[in-house]
What we know:
Largest sheet: 8 strands, mixed
Structural class: alpha+beta
Distance between the termini: 59 Å
Number of strands: 27
CATH class of the largest domain: Alpha Beta
CATH topology of the largest domain: Rossmann fold
Number of helices: 14
Strand content: 15-25%
Number of domains: 2
Radius of gyration: 24 Å
Helix content: 25-40%
Amino acid sequence: xxxxxxxxxxxxxxxxxxxxxxxxxxxxxxxxxxxxxxxxxxxxxxxxxxxxxxxxxxxxxxxxxxxxxxxxxxxxxxxxxxxxxxxxxxxxxxxxxxxxxxxxxxxxxxxxxxxxxxxxxxxxxxxxxxxxxxxxxxxxxxxxxxxxxxxxxxxxxxxxxxxxxxxxxxxxxxxxxxxxxxxxxxxxxxxxxxxxxxxxxxxxxxxxxxxxxxxxxxxxxxxxxxxxxxxxxxxxxxxxxxxxxxxxxxxxxxxxxxxxxxxxxxxxxxxxxxxxxxxxxxxxxxxxxxxxxxxxxxxxxxxxxxxxxxxxxxxxxxxxxxxxxxxxxxxxxxxxxxxxxxxxxxxxxxxxxxxxxxxxxxxxxxxxxxxxxxxxxxxxxxxxxxxxxxxxxxxxxxxxxxxxxxxxxxxxxxxxxxxxxxxxxxxxxxxxxxxxxxxxxxxxxxxxxxxxxxxxxxxxxxxxxxxxxxxxxxxxxxxxxxxxxxxxxxxxxxxxxxxxxxxxxxxxxxxxxxxxxxxxxxxxxxxxxxxxxxxxxxxxxxxxxxxxxxxxxxxxxxxxx
Length: 561
């Protein structure tokens, strides 16, 4: 009765011409304009904004509890992943939340559209003037200095007091970021001998599938289970070229079928232009090394266009797209990231929980850890503290760092790693992180969050990867090489599991940290930045190479095969 009366009273005030400001309270704010952005001035009141409203999820604690149950090897429910309907039942907002939010929007004659499978995200289109009144704020125009990109954001916004507990956030509002960073440092044109296909790489001059197979014991045996798939995401008009994949496999995997390709899905106006000159280094790298490592595991390339209004470059739309599928890929790899502090905690947490939903359904989410060392994704030797790469910092994704050299492998200098400022140390890595912090002592005290989730979780090679783009051969570097490589390994493990009548790995982190012996520990190298040497790779887990690099035979044993 009190709740309903509160809404009626609020609506009466609006009908009398009084705004809701008396019943509003600040919901999210940031103290200042983020680094790299300049305030240009107020946004025109007539300009249209596409906003998203994240509604409070019904039982997110139940989702996370279920995620741990089905993902922890010692649990009696291990591997018993939830169905799409079961996840949505936990996540879908209550009727009270839906009624409260819709009454608020209706009072301003605003129509909303549901844009997520569980109904926890609404989209609205309003003018800046209406948005300013709705949220008691002032939207302004900001310019990103490096790219020149202009965005409309605010430093603070409010919602009616009675909507606390019903609205998680309104977005994009206080989240500032330009385009996401691609985790590939460089590309260099190279000429290879004509006899290349008959003389596989011995890991001496470059990395190719044969090198990785030898290094990590990855089998060449073709997969058999078509229900097990790998998803590769692409952003920013990065397109995967089919002819380049065919040439790559012909030169570096001549044993494979000539018919191997990838399926293309698109969202947000994405496409996959096959003009050779439009071949994307990132997209080609990711599709060539998932297909080239995971023999005959089906690969789907998701091209995410720029016609999105999720305010996060399509990351939200990507997660919701995969959640909408009855059978999403068993593993999804992404070689893009942004700085954690560019994203509001509420937004980051909501996206992270979307990855938890996918994990609970049996999908492994992989992200490259970034290429800025302890600076995260940035490059700024004057930084006052260490950066954090997101979504790698989310505990419900598996973050993949980079190594180099072969006998032994060492940490790649650019491999991003560190500790989240948003999430605490999860139980699955508590012992591993404690050991590293004991080694670190007071070194870098105050530059990082010693109570935060540590990343990366694992690593693979990340330097001198050979790819084909525009019908030419190139060498590329970056953790973008590492994530698709590890995705290929997991794709093959999942194939063996499904063939044996078992479930896919899903969210892997509890399994990985309980199976550290299935990885080759990397004990040398560091990831400098911010005018420091960065963190060092040591025996055991470290925030440069994680648990180390995979040993396929040992991983097979660890999964019970």
